[in-house]
Amino acid sequence: MSSAGIPAAGAARVRIHQFSVIQALMAGLYDGAFAAREVLAVGDFGLGCGNALNGELVIVDGQIFRCTDDGAVSHGDPDELLPFAEVVAFAPTLQHELAGSVDRTGLEALISGLVGNPNQFYAIRLDGEFEHMLVREPVRQHHPYRPLPEVMAGQREMTLPSTTGTLVGFWAPHIFQGVSVAGYHLHYLNDSRTHGGHTLDYTVTSGTLRLQPVTGIEVHLPGTPEFAAADLGAATADADIRRVESAPASAR
Q1: pTM for the whole thing?
Q2: What is the DSSP string of the chain?
Q3: What is the pLDDT of residues 123-161, one digit of tens each?
């Protein structure tokens, strides 16, 4: 496969489809606004969250899997309304076999070195074996909703000491923080489809990494009164997103 840098002239232009924006979740907009089948119509690979924060979603091979705070994994309902999702038609252009064990920091450095262009989106898939995997799942919320930084103080976290499965997610340029999650945003699903969630830490011992450069992003905004009235310009947005997306509850 070719380099994952800027696509050659004449190459197909692939877009990420994102439904809502991260800053809406940060503000506590957890009610679903987009049908899951609408999301799957434009992408077979990605991530998201369930209605009322009922689970982290892993979208892989054209199927939606819900990872909930009771530790279970179930198939998503195509008629469910989702508050947030990010998907792409996955067609990787670079494949790399991992030569040895790397932790989260090491894997992110490896990917950054392979892609060579931090100002472009990338879809990321890693099928591998992990000797350590820390994931989180949010607790389902009820009205009145609290902002996400408050909600995630009570998130459920689970450590899988040894697991085989798939990392699924994206790299987004830093200028898109608040629209998307700047940097790396990855979810995990094990091969038996019994455990998964939003990744906080991991060590991968072997695996196949596949990357797809993406030439653009199309954002679908909710048409709800709540979204129209929301204040999405919090001064602490960048720090809040980094804390919610990357840190275990004990580190906040």
Answers
A1: 0.93
A2: ---SSSPPTTPPP-EEEEES-HHHHHTT--S--EEHHHHHTT-SEEEEE-GGG--EEEEETTEEEEE-TTS-EEEPPTT-EESEEEEE----SEEEE--S-EEHHHHHHHHHHHH--TTSEEEEEEEEEEEEEEEEEPPPP-SSPPPHHHHGGG-EEEEESSEEEEEEEEEE-GGGBTTB-SEEEEEEEETTSS-EEEEEEEEEEEEEEEEEEE-EEEEE---SHHHHH-----TTHHHHHHHHHHS-GGG-
A3: 999 999 999 999 999 999 999 999 999 999 888 999 999
